[in-house]
TrEMBL record:
Cofactor section: pyridoxal 5'-phosphate
InterPro entries named among the record's database cross-references: Glycg_phsphrylas, Glyco_trans_35, Pyridoxal_P_attach_site
Family according to the record: Belongs to the glycogen phosphorylase family.
Chief localization: cytoplasm
GO molecular function: glycogen phosphorylase activity; pyridoxal phosphate binding
EC number: 2.4.1.1
Highest taxon in the source lineage: Bacteria
Pfam short name (any one): Phosphorylase
Subcellular location: Cytoplasm
Residues the record lists as N6-(pyridoxal phosphate)lysine modifications: 673
Keywords: Allosteric enzyme, Carbohydrate metabolism, Cytoplasm, Glycosyltransferase, Pyridoxal phosphate, Transferase
Reactions that this protein is recorded to catalyse: [(1->4)-alpha-D-glucosyl](n) + phosphate = [(1->4)-alpha-D-glucosyl](n-1) + alpha-D-glucose 1-phosphate
Protein name, per record: Alpha-1,4 glucan phosphorylase
Length: 822
């Protein structure tokens, strides 16, 4: 099959002029905005100057995008998310504006390599995992498909944390991503809003005794100050705004206290303000952490709602038209308190009665659910909520009364079902259910994969679904192909362009044309060469970061995601131990070289997740140093997994581990990124794996294990994991080795409780799925040995997963939920 290269190219003379102009602008920016001569400029100076030169071009399009939406009266989408895992923005903006090659040449004129300075840009520490990365992909896609949109979140000073591994244990350190400033952002001091906590609520009545409104008088008040980052769409068609809030005290210093010698107390308001936006997800295993997290969620939600209301009223006479001109989208339950905040503003500030306010609210909000784990559907103790947000607690009680009266009026719900629908959990400690609040207030509630959406209706929201049967819908997640193919895998992008032309750059569905090349030996050879180069890059990263030498010809088997028991890194580690035993016991067999990579962070207070990280490193230490393995198996836990690390690991993967307990992963987006970059998936029928199998074909994916229905049946039927373990020699031997201290001689009992949990209850079905997983891995071995077959499968994965573009997802949101053109 003949490969073709597009003949389209820019006019050489015009391109040269553009490069020279950019080169001159970089020097001018370096001198007048950074304050440096080229001879003394550091790499960070060159980075800042390069970003600001391109940022100027972004601002022109940003202003034009904003003006165009205002003049046309476009409906706007407001996307509220606790996380925006945007990663580095330099390549994103340069590529989307079509300036990457010109900037590379312009910097080269000054002896500066763009790849070196691009590597200095820190990852914005604004997220944790899939939730935040999805929000980032959605923001880029909304700009790319020309939807006027604002993202709202928190400008965390330290974000989650920087992960280091000390003696195999995770150590959490502050992430200092703002150390050199952020050249992408614009501080908007004029865009500041007051946010309060605590205090009391009083009633205002008319002369005839009629209640007119309520007045909330907070005892604590802070300012939410806006920092805006432009989000550039593909080809620069639209530039949208990511607005992040930073907290400031209204009174930075209490002079009376300072002058009286109380220097620490004088700064208490500043310290409280700084705490609000210092870290993402403060540990909530104690009351102080819970309170801070609730404060954070209200802080950014309240500021965002005030900003949305102000923007609407600057263009329209009142708020009755808000649902026609704005769609406020809640990304999970974290911003659900925005529902009560909008109700408060509508009633207490703008004078609407409850019925009108509730009608406006219910036609404005939409809600995406991201979890089927009941404990992940946030709830707050009523006393804590009432103390911090007394007026909002009143409003939630009023909403609850409205909903429960409706439920009772139908006569179709039992007392138990009414309790499940209530916004207040009454069994034991009384708690405010934020998932229920978001559900009853939203005109649309969507899941993020077909399976997840079906299970929402059957499990966590079964009774609410019965009350509002038309409300739940599915919007399967997607990823932006600009970041997750074109930028992170330029070698594969060039290869695809040579094969099918450039149409896929603008219409990712055109990747289907690549299917015709899956069996072509010449194309396979070039595809394998790209993969090899990507693997060598990862080998270099691991050598630099960990001092571990790896063979790029080995099968690279990668599991990178947040560390959680339901994601089953433990299953992967146990299989590595079992494989280690088999290689040592049967050296005569033809074992293929394999490297098992892990990456991800554990929540600081999640004991078992942190113990799993330690186990992975203990197992790695033993296996990697055992000469009897002959280098056939290596294990690497790559520390401080983030977007930039993912951009190296994903293109290098041969095998993508998506092995969560069926029925617990809402969707996953890592599975999509790996498949797009030509990795085969080994996984359960969970989340979007179901739809990936439908797209790539069941012959091009390796599926194993219990289905979601079978998991539920096992749990209901009295599952006995001990009997399963005793019946599986490989599993039993691996578990005995781990629990007896083979991998932890310094502390033989370290893993006794962790492994004992598998014998006692095995809630996440690790033992139940082990044999099927081990068999699936040996099937992977067979596939890998047949190189032409493996490469054909990998190419078909790349060719067939264009549907998982976030552009497609956003167009569905726009058409079916937000009712905006896209």
């Amino acid at each position: 099959m003949t490969l073709t290269r597009s003949s389209a190219s820019a006019n050489p003379a015009a391109k040269k002029a553009d490069v020279l102009k950019l080169a001159a602008e970089i020097i001018e920016c370096l001198k007048y905005r950074v304050g440096k001569e080229p001879s003394v400029a550091t790499r960070h100076d060159w980075l800042t100057a390069s970003i600001k030169v391109v940022r100027d071009r972004v601002v022109d399009r940003w202003i034009e995008s904003t003006r165009r939406a205002y003049e046309r009266g476009d409906k706007r989408v407001y996307y509220l998310s606790m996380e925006f895992l945007i990663g580095r923005l330099m390549r994103d903006a340069f590529s989307n504006l079509g300036l990457m090659d010109q900037m590379r040449e312009a910097l080269a004129i000054h002896g500066v390599e763009i790849d070196i300075i691009a590597g200095l840009e820190p990852d914005a520490a604004l997220g944790n995992g899939g939730l935040g990365r999805l929000a980032a992909c959605f923001m880029e896609s909304m700009a790319s498909v020309d939807i006027p949109a604002h993202g709202y979140g928190i400008r965390y000073v330290h974000g989650l944390f920087r992960q280091e591994i000390h003696d195999g244990w995770q150590v959490e350190l502050p992430e200092t991503w703002l150390e050199h400033g952020n050249p992408w952002e614009f501080e908007r001091r004029e865009g500041a809003y007051e946010v309060g906590f605590g205090g009391s609520v009083t009633s205002v009545t008319s002369k005839d005794g009629r209640l007119e409104r309520h007045v909330w008088k907070p005892t604590e008040r802070f300012l939410a100050v806006a920092f805006d980052t432009p989000v550039v769409g593909w080809r620069g068609k639209r530039v949208n705004t990511l607005r992040l809030w930073s907290a400031m005290p209204i009174d930075p210093i209490l002079l009376d206290a300072f002058n009286a010698g109380d220097h620490i107390g004088a700064l208490r308001e500043s310290n409280k303000a700084e705490a609000l936006t210092r870290v993402l997800y403060p540990a909530d295993s104690h009351q102080a952490g819970q309170e801070l997290r609730l404060r954070q969620e209200y802080f950014f939600s309240a500021a965002s709602i005030q900003d949305i209301v102000r923007r609407h009223l600057s263009q329209y006479p009142d708020l009755t038209s808000l649902p026609e001109k704005a769609s406020i989208h809640l990304n999970d339950t974290h911003p659900a308190i925005a529902v009560a905040e909008l109700m408060r503003l509508l009633m207490d500030v703008h004078g609407h009665d409850f019925d009108v306010a509730w009608d406006i609210t219910c036609r404005t909000f939409a809600y995406t659910n991201h979890t089927l784990l009941p404990e992940a559907l946030e709830s707050w103790p009523v006393p804590l909520f009432e103390r911090l947000l007394p007026r909002h607690m009143q409003i939630i009680y009023a909403i609850n009364a409205e909903v429960l009266l409706k439920v009772r009026s139908t006569g179709d719900f039992s007392d138990e079902q009414v309790r499940a629908i209530s916004l207040i959990h009454e069994d034991g400690e009384r708690r405010v259910r934020m998932g229920n609040l978001a559900f009853v207030a939203a005109f649309s509630v969507n899941g993020v994969s077909a399976l997840h959406t079906d299970l929402m209706k059957e499990t966590v929201f079964a009774d609410l679904h019965r009350l509002y049967p038309a409300r739940i819908n599915n919007k399967t997640n997607g990823i932006t192909p600009r970041r997750w193919l074109m930028q992170c895998n330029p070698g594969l992008t060039d290869l695809i362009r040579d094969a099918i032309g450039e149409r896929f750059l603008d219409d990712i569905d055109a990747l289907k044309e690549l299917d015709a090349f899956a069996g072509d030996s010449a194309f396979q050879e070039r595809f394998a060469g790209v993969k090899r180069a990507n693997k060598e890059k990862l080998v270099g990263l691991v050598a630099d970061r960990m001092g571990l030498r790896l063979d790029p010809s080995a099968l690279f088997d990668i599991q990178i995601k947040r560390i959680h028991e339901y994601k089953r890194q433990l299953l992967n580690i146990i299989e590595a131990v079992a494989l280690y035993d088999q290689i040592r016991s049967h050296p005569e067999k033809d074992w293929l070289p394999r490297v098992k990579f892990f990456g991800g962070k554990a929540a600081p207070s999640y004991h078992n997740a942190k113990l799993i990280i330690k186990l992975a490193n203990d197992v790695a230490r033993v296996i990697n140093s055992d000469p009897s393995v002959r280098g056939l198996l290596k294990v690497a836990f790559v520390p401080n997994y983030n977007v930039s690390t993912a951009e190296v690991m994903i293109p290098a993967a041969d095998l993508s581990e998506q092995i969560s307990t069926a029925g617990l992963e809402a969707s996953g987006t890592g599975n999509m990124k790996f498949a797009l970059n030509g990795a085969l998936t080994i996984g359960t029928l969970d989340g979007a794996n179901v739809e990936i199998r439908e797209c790539v074909g069941e012959e091009n994916i390796v599926i194993f294990g219990l289905t979601a229905q079978e998991v539920a049946e096992r749990r209901a039927g009295g599952y006995q994991p001990r009997a399963v373990i005793e019946g599986s020699p490989e599993l039993r031997q691996a578990l005995e080795a781990i629990s007896s201290g083979v991998f932890s001689p310094d502390d033989p009992d370290r893993y006794k409780e962790l492994i004992g949990g598998l014998y006692d209850h095995d809630w996440f079905m690790v033992a139940a799925d082990f044999d099927a997983y081990a068999d699936a891995q040996r099937h992977v071995d067979e596939l890998w040995r047949d190189s032409p077959r493996w490469l054909a499968m990998a190419i078909r994965n790349t060719a067939r997963v264009g549907w998982f573009s976030s552009d497609r997802t956003i167009r569905q949101y726009a058409r079916e939920i937000w009712k905006v053109p896209a």
